[in-house]
Amino acid sequence: MHSDLYDITIIGGGPVGLFGAFYAGLRGMRVKIIDSLPELGGQLTALYPEKYVYDMPGFPEVLAKDLAREMIRQAMRFKPTVCLEERAETLTRTDDSWAITTHTGQVHYTRTIVICAGAGAFAPRKLNAEGVAAFEGNGVYYGVREKSLFAGKRLLIVGGGDSAVDWALNLYPIAQEVTLIHRRDEFRAHEQSVQELRRSPVKILTPYELRRVCGDGTVERAVVFHNKTQDEIELPIDAVILNLGFVATLGPIKSWGLELQGNQIVVDEYMRTNLPGVYAAGDVCTHPGKLKLIATGVGEVCTAVNHAKSVIDPTAKMFPGHSSDMELPAL
Predict the structure, then answer these.
(1) Which one-letter DSSP state was computed for residue 136?
(2) φ, ψ for residue 322 (rounded to 5)?
(3) Which of 12, 60, 99, 180 is most open to solvent, judged by the fewest CB atoms within 10 Å of its CB?
(4) Residue among 289, 324, 319 nearest 302 (CA)
(5) Alpha helix (H) ranges present in the chain?
(6) What string of DSSP letters covers 12-31?
(7) Can you say whether the dihedral through the CA atoms of 270, 121, 161, 149 is positive or negative?
(8) Cβ neighbours around 236 below 10 Å, total
(9) Residue 163 — very low, low, confident or very high, per pLDDT cuts 50/70/90?
(10) How many CB atoms lie within 10 A of CB 224?
(11) How sure is the predictor about 278, in pLDDT bands with cuts at 50, 70 and 90?
């Protein structure tokens, strides 16, 4: 048996992985988190820290970065080991445990694993329109890290999903003006958000697409076109925000011998994969009735952790009781 053997290793430091780390600590397990990003929080911190989350229990609305901060604080209560900027590459069975080797060459030994990798490694879906690549990071952005960057600016937002609509609603109060274009007449965003958008001062153009971004050193204007008539409109703008979704991949996890359905890991009602002692929770997994919400993901990871605990220690209860009845270490 390896001297540095953990009870449970959680792959992924997003909200589901963070709650899993907390809950495993609550169950008295020795916990490790492995994440390829330089900071914990997953997409909450890496992709949309300034975006509001409305569907997390207990928070009528909360900035993603603030939700991540509190979930990190909660996860650290039982002092798990955290390994950042390490991408899990290979998984090898060793007797009754597992060895995870990361791209840095580090080997992590663990009795059980919960894969909480979200959508996997993600990158924004790029737009191949004239001028976009030239101004990327300097007037053209694939996400919003700091809202203040757009204060007083004339903004063009491209997209029709929740991110595009949410950013239009978030930014119009501080921007000089906001125009949103979408290549279809119908939006994919939540109905209530779309209704709010239509009541707002945001200028909506459908079905329009971006043809080119122009400027001398900085973004000065954009040319958009009606994709049925091909009629063009030139808009004076200072910045473009592209919300076209993300291309996600499980990466090396796909080669681990897991049963997959598309880009998701198949699990049963205990969140077990087809590999012994390996579980999955959150967006990375699929099962009948699956809902991709943080709220459901944190429930799934509790199921995974409780089952892993009972496998490691058959004398342990599957459900330990409510946390309000336990003595917890101070934050």
Answers:
(1) B
(2) -90, 145
(3) 60
(4) 319
(5) 15-26, 43-46, 64-75, 132-135, 162-171, 191-199, 294-312
(6) --SHHHHHHHHHHHHTT--E
(7) positive
(8) 10
(9) confident
(10) 22
(11) very high
Sign of the CA dihedral running 266, 268, 274, 280: positive
Q: What's the pLDDT at 43? A: 86
In this structure, are strands 221-226 and 208-214 parallel, antiparallel, or unpaired? Answer: antiparallel
Tell me the C-alpha distance between 6 and 31, whole Å: 6
Cβ-in-10-Å burial (0-12, 13-18, 19+) of 71 comes to buried
- List the domains of the chain with CATH numbers: 5-122+246-325 (3.50.50.60), 126-242 (3.50.50.60)
Query: Would you tell me how many other CB atoms lie within 10 Å of the CB of residue 72?
Result: 20
d(CA 144, CA 290): 29
In this structure, what token pair is assigned to residue 50?
Answer: 């300034």
Q: How far apart are CA 263 and CA 268, in angstroms?
A: 17
> Structure tokens of 189?
């965003």
Q: Which single residue is written with the structure tokens 């997390």?
A: 56
Answer with the residue of higher pLDDT: 326 or 310: 310
Bridge partners for 222 per DSSP? 213, 235
pLDDT at 296 (0 to 100): 96
Give the list of residues 6+ apart from residue 230 with CB closer than 8 angstroms, or none: none
Q: Which DSSP category does 253 fall into?
A: G
Query: What's the whole-model pTM score?
Result: 0.74
